[in-house]
Design goal:
Length: 317
Amino acid sequence: MTMSAERTVKSAASRKRAWGPRMWPYLFALPFVAAYAAFQLYPVIYSFVLSLHDWNGIGSKTYIGFKNYVQLWTHDPLFVKSLWNTLIMMAMFIPVTLILGLLLAYWTFHLVRGKKLIQTINVLPYITTPVAIGFIFSYLFDWQTGLVNLLLVKFGWAQEGVYWLQNPWSSRAVIALMVIWRNLGYFMIIYMAGMTVIPQDVYEAARVDGSSGFHTFRKITMPLLRNISVFLVVTSVINGLQLFDEPKLLYGGWSGSVQVGGPDNTALTMIWHFVDVSFISDTRFGYASAIAYSLFLLIVVFSMLSYRLTAPKEDSK
């Protein structure tokens, strides 16, 4: 065997030995990558392809290009109304939840006794199942037997029961109240976690300088929790655009009959419209896929806008 042949054999053997240890990470990652590609990536790609077709789930698919998207944005008043309803309800519950969560966290954080009890009470709604929440609020705001109307009439604040769930604005307010009640404890816990990492030396220096409680809260606590507020705003926008459980269960839980969209579709959200088009009133899977991808683009746009508006500005040098 010549010298060149020996070098070739040795280099091949060294490459084989080097490849052996390097292949194990890929082998260990292969099950997850395969499962992700099969159950996550492929459905996402197939959904986009399906949005370019007209298909009812039974017959053959008909390629129609972007006609589903054109019809969705120009000839579907329910989609535009569902987007408008979602944005209105988000404007109701996001600021209120942020403000109340921050104030409740600040008050609870400085409690000497009962801190764990307050935390437990406020987190319980967050771990409550959405079905139970729908039953609770459907019962509370029912026109005939609702506890809210009974109290209003008993104390003389109203002559008769209010149609909370049949009025456009009050129905949206009830849905926003459900979201606030459910997520307030989560916001409180996140803010309290941020308060624990604030150095106490900052508060001690503020007290030495004569700073009052409100001034310390406004000038020290709130700025230092800015990043947490940005995180909560962005995640609230993402979750708000996917709002479905609260309105769906509110109009289909207590009474037993599902009223799609609420009174005059004023409680219809984009996800509810997507589910209705896909499985309830129709089976236009291509059109429903166009709704899903339009919602995805809206989530991306609104998430970027919310981050740009709430993120701290870097000082330009």
